[in-house]
Design brief:
This protein has helices at 3-11, 56-59, 102-116; strands at residues 35-39, 45-50, 52-54, 63-67, 70-76, 83-90, 94-97, 124-136, 142-152, 155-168, 171-181, 191-192, 197-199, 202-213. It has 216 residues and is mostly beta strands. The protein has one domain: Lipid/polyisoprenoid-binding, YceI-like (Lipocalin, Beta Barrel), CATH 2.40.128. A hairpin with a 6-residue loop joins β5 (70-76) and β6 (83-90). The chain is elongated. It starts with a helix and ends with a strand.
Length: 216
């Protein structure tokens, strides 16, 4: 099983009320008879995983990047088959995790912010659902498909994100994983060593999202 396939298998459970999303965290979600939930960034995680190519197997390694500053709202009800989600992440909040070399970490983070994502020009990554389909599982959780628009690096594209959602003690928990192709968003994958080592075009995004009810 390939690294990418393994990621998708482990986490085809991993997204829900997170990357389906857009607009600002304080923007209201339009909802009727839905429970509305605010994403709790301190209890949630948003991870981007890259794979290296070329001579990377000898001189480099894959990277895991965490976005620290994000928020949004989800509308979801246990007995209904619809919902919505909006989410915003501040692209500049990315941090490389699992890299012990401080100098290497800072250099990679700087390159990702300034050269790859161009965060000064495109400061936010947003996602807003246009439609949501759900099916209840025997264990009481829900398989959810978030159909929406992702805005990244100045490009907007329609995507579908699968997720697993549970509602427990008034808290919404969503996990999921999916892949993006950087060139679909006019992003040039990072490379170094005169192009002999680089980041593959496809990256894997995974989420473990906790959201609390919004008090009316």
């Amino acid at each position: 099983m390939t690294h990418t396939a393994r990621n998708l298998t482990i986490g085809a459970t991993l997204v829900a009320a997170a990357l389906g999303a857009a607009a600002r965290a304080d923007a209201p979600v339009e909802t009727a008879e839905h429970g509305v939930y605010q994403i709790d960034a301190k209890r949630s995680r948003f991870i981007v995983e890259t794979q290296t190519s070329g001579l990377s197997t000898l001189f480099a390694h894959d990277h895991r990047i965490e976005l620290r500053d994000f928020g949004g709202q989800a509308a979801f009800a246990r007995n209904q088959k619809s919902g919505s989600l909006q989410f915003t992440a501040r692209a500049r909040s990315l941090m490389l995790i699992g890299e012990d070399d401080l100098g290497a970490r800072q250099a990679i983070e700087s390159t990702l912010r300034e050269d790859v994502l161009e965060t000064d020009k495109y400061p936010e990554v947003t996602f807003r659902t246009k439609s949501v389909t759900t099916s209840r599982r025997g264990d009481g959780t829900f398989d959810v498909r978030l159909n929406g628009e992702l805005a990244l690096h100045g490009v907007k594209r329609a995507i579908t994100v699968p997720a697993r959602v549970s509602l427990e003690a008034g808290t919404l928990h969503a996990i999921g994983v999916f892949e993006l192709r950087q060139t679909d968003y006019d992003i040039t994958p990072f490379s170094f060593a005169n192009g002999t080592v680089g980041i593959r075009d496809v990256v894997t995004l995974s989420f473990d999202i906790v959201a609390s009810p919004v008090k009316s």
